[in-house]
Amino acid sequence: MKAKLQSANYAAARAVLSSRVEVVAAYPITPATTIPEQIALLSEEGTYKGEFIRVESEHSAMFACIGASSTGARAFTATSSNGLLLMDEALHWAAAARLPIVLANINRSVSPSWNIHVTHDDSMSKRDTGWIQFYVSSVDELYHTLIQAFKLAENERVLMPVMVNADGFVLSHTVQPYDYLEPEEVDKFLPPYKPSHWVMDPENPISHGNIVFPEYYQEFRYGMHEANRNAFDVYEEIEKEYKDLFGKHFGGPIDCHKCDDADVVFTSQGSVAAEAIDAVDELREEGYKVGNARMRMIRPFPVEHVRELAGKVKGITAFDRGVSYGFGGHVASDMRSALYGSKHHPIIKDYIGGLGGRDITVDDIKQMLLETIEAVENNEIEPEEIWHDLRE
């Protein structure tokens, strides 16, 4: 294992190399552009041995990956924002065909208006495609989660595509240290992909994706649902194996910091976790029993993990960097659904902020936590969502 200092995009390209990906198809879009750019450079110099396909759109990129994965090749692509939206039809196709494709999505605001900074609306709008979704908080976590994603996607109990999301600009355009593995090291964890399901083979012609009449269609979709549920147990096994081999562990579906004795926890997705941990530590020094619960997996949604967390606390400060318009924060809404009918239902204060890359500081998070503590003390009925730091 070697230490490197790079951006998340360069680390993603290295993960492709470490995982011996056989086919990469991609179209550039800021802030994800340097992922395919770096893979192309590695291909030109002969370091990357797989096939790099230059396509004319993100829609074509995903369908090229679908074609590659259908023949039994390990396939990868990367995109962002409107590029992910353009893939929509193909995202549904890949999941319904049970193809273990891995996608690195660099979260960015959706236009118009737009910038290259983080908002989670792009990937959150794809929660119902069937793709498993991770959200990472650091360059190191992105690199290792991408490697783990191939193992998870290719497991015969899962066989579903995986999307690994990283915050635009915060991770894509700044550098952090991460630990890089040579392909020979990763081979011990991730052997060559050998499909356990259907493959397209000229020597054994088959058809796939034909019309399915009503008496059978529902069974196909139920299989996708069960595969997503299986992902929890499979990923637990994968993380244990990865930790045993390489010493890396990022916390499972929910990564908790000082949650065990907390009265109130702050929940969020992505890079804001760094500020959240500092805010929690500062409030602990001031005598407040608070914690941070970073939501790593959003699909499948970790219902049992959320219920376990809720059973320990009196309040949750649920922070979303995206919004379901007219309804509220994506993950806060999922949390409320997960806790419906549960014996333990702490007060949930739903905050929406940081859209378009607006800074969320340690002091901001402390304020949100203190407001939730006050709501718990006053036994407030859950309010509507609070849009953090709205300008007049």
Characterise the protein shown here.
- It is globular, with a radius of gyration of 21 Å.
- Helix 1 (8-18) crosses helix 2 (34-44).
- A 7-stranded mixed sheet has the order 3-2-4-5-7-6-12, with helices on both faces. It has a 6-stranded mixed sheet with strand order 9-11-10-13-14-15, sandwiched between helices. Strands 1-8 form a two-stranded antiparallel sheet.
- The chain has helices at 8-18, 34-44, 58-70, 82-86, 88-96, 121-124, 139-154, 183-186, 214-246, 273-285, 303-310, 330-339, 362-377, and strands spanning 2-7, 23-26, 51-54, 75-79, 102-107, 132-135, 162-167, 175-180, 254-257, 264-268, 290-295, 297-299, 315-320, 347-352, 386-387.
- Helix 2 links the parallel strand 2 and strand 3.
- It is built from 13 helices and 15 strands.
- The protein has 392 residues and is an alpha/beta fold.
- 39% of the residues lie in helices and 19% in strands.
Fold topology:
Layout: E1 2-7, H1 8-18, E2 23-26, H2 34-44, E3 51-54, H3 58-70, E4 75-79, H4 82-86, H5 88-96, E5 102-107, H6 121-124, E6 132-135, H7 139-154, E7 162-167, E8 175-180, H8 183-186, H9 214-246, E9 254-257, E10 264-268, H10 273-285, E11 290-295, E12 297-299, H11 303-310, E13 315-320, H12 330-339, E14 347-352, H13 362-377, E15 386-387
Parallel strand pairs: 2-3, 2-4, 4-5, 5-7, 6-7, 10-11, 10-13, 13-14, 14-15
Antiparallel strand pairs: 1-8, 6-12, 9-11
Could you give the order of the helices and strands? Answer: EHEHEHEHHEHEHEEHHEEHEEHEHEHE
- Low-pLDDT stretches are none
Tally of separate helices: 13
Q: How can the largest sheet be summarized?
A: 7 strands, mixed
Main sheet: which strands, in order across?
3-2-4-5-7-6-12
> Quaternary state, please?
single chain
Helical percentage: 25-40%
Distance N to C terminus: 50 Å
**β-strand number:** 15
Q: State mean pLDDT (0 to 100 scale).
A: 95
What is the structural class?
A: alpha/beta
Instruction: Assign an overall shape.
Output: globular
Which strand-content bin applies to the residues?
15-25%
Radius of gyration equals 21 Å
